[in-house]
Amino acid sequence: MDGGASSDSRISPKGKEEESNRTVLAILVGPPGSGKSTFCEAVISASRRPWVRVCQDTIGNGKTGTKAQCLKGAVDALNEGKSVFIDRCNLEREQRADFLKFCGSRTDMHAIVLDLPAKVCISRCVNRTGHEGNVQGGRAAVIVNKMLQNKEAPNLNEGFSRITFCQNDSDVKEAIKMYSELGPADKLSPGEFGKKSKKESGQQSIMKFFKKSAREENSQKEKEGGSSSGNGAGNEFPTLAFPSISTADFQFDLDKASDIIVESAQDFLKRVDNVRLALVDLSDKSRIISLVREKVMKKGIDSNRFITFVGDITMLYSKGGLRCTAIANAANWRLKPGGGGVNAAIFKAAGEALDIATKERAETLNPGSSVAVPLPSTSPLYQREGVTHVIHVLGPNMNPQRPNYLQNDYTKGCKILRDAYSSLFESFASVACLERNKKPKLAELKDKTSGESKNKENREEVKSRNQNQTTTTTTTTSGESKNKENREEVKSRNWGSWALALYNTAMDPEKYKDGLLEIADDFIVLNDLYPKARKHVLVLSRLNGLDCLEDAKREHLPILKSMHSAGVKWVKKFLSEDPSPHFRLGYHSVPSMRQLHLHVISQDFDSPSLKNKKHWNSFNTAFFRDSVDVIDEIEEHGSAKLSGEKLLEMELRCHRCKSAHPNIPKLKSHIAKCRASYPPHLLQNSRLLSATNNDLNIS
DNA sequence: GTTCTAGAAC
DNA sequence: GTTCTAGAAC
Question: Where does the record place Basic and acidic residues bias (predicted)?
Fold first, then answer.
């Protein structure tokens, strides 16, 4: 920081009489979660000067307050000779203007800008509301980000005599100290303090993060003896390739659309560093591409960070040498493959895996929103193109032949299209953040620069790397054919001694019988030693050699079925004691403990043993394979689908409402309260068992 | 699978 | 300073 906020500041009053009665009206400027109320409270409790906090959230006595009420509150306090904090977001100039009318001989106008990283504000919002209301998880992010999009930093020419900018907690602390020490007769020196040098941004931590990653990558490159920098620098950035949304089938006006693309992109790139956007179109005669190019040029957007690209969005790397972290899909609202255009092409190129992964994420999509779907490493798009995520996005429809036609209402249409792009870019930012967190895999590829003649060796490299991955992590997709070659290698597993506890129990149950709930001929039921929910038991196969789900084949169907019905029996027993919980029965794709075991687990996940991301994701991503599906798949294909351990690294999402949470404690406090209905996928095929579940009465 | 702990993030 | 994560050892 350039030391600003600290640079004090107090000027002792010149002529005591005239100056000592001066009041201060300080307008706090910052999004939800930036700490405005905390700021006010800290100053008020420590200050010798009489302050009044005028807060729009509380002024309405339970109802949402209005700006008018705030204005009146401020006038009253100032008339009583008190100084005032205006505690509302005040991010836009217009919002602040009315308060500045008080600027007069007796009142000094101050702005205090809490320009903290958006990420920090979002996580505080999540924490604060925790549960109900709309400001939680992903929504908090959307709301805060949206507000920040329109923010206008206060300027002295609005009528402020002093503006204090705070970019981090220590700036805030100093500002609090400064205002706290402001006695009734003191005056703070006028001017701007603590303003950031160049770009202003609420995304500091994300920017820092990307900068750091880029540095690391560069230094690694140097170590490898690679070329230093040059014009290709942009090639290192995580890149989002996206088609123009709504302008093909949905017939959105091209001129308007190109404005929105350029403005949204510029906005995004301003806030997030070291990422790149690429607008892609199939044809070099594309009108949208030329319009966008023109506007990008006019606006002077960095050509390393925003590019237009002519080519097939499903073959950007293999055919065009353009490496993209994520590609956007102009999806339909049902998120179904097919149809035509980009949607059909992407689903086709990504294979069945994308369809499955999409279904796990969402059933439908609203216009103006997006959903990021991680691509399984088996998808051709991942292997061949290095794409880790497909982000489905749905724009407005201006085509009368298609559903949800907007009847030429471009006010609505433009808004939805803007929302669509901003949602798309936000999704990409979190994807890029996630990918960066992992050890760079594809980034290891030493490609020189762009060049259309992307050499074959590189592609071979990608391929072999991914093959290696499949052998070590036992990731598979569709059925038996896939992993035949790998099987021998995978077969010899190294189980640590700690991983044999279940195996030993299964082989010699009598020895451990005190701790067991049930011993049958082919299975054992026992409480999980470290339950991850209030009810969590294991149905353990007794068959030697059946180590894990990967080993389960058609010949094991009888035992799988008998384990399943044992599980259901125990669920019934638990429900007869307490009918409230829901249960799932399933296997981990890659278990830590040897000997096939079926988890029977209540969906409260209320347990001190549930401590980390891996715990959560092992029960709440596709890593957890429902017993019913496993049986179906083995009956049909001879083996069950397995998911890779990559899923265990995914961001934390509520298993009911699917909101995202920054860490385990916050997730846990959320799920303790979330009563949203379960995702539709779980409500089918008896994947979720409860007291009201009819299937329980029959089987 | 857990525990322990360094150090990152807050 | 405290909270949280993630990697190593078992």
Answer: 213-225, 444-464, 481-490
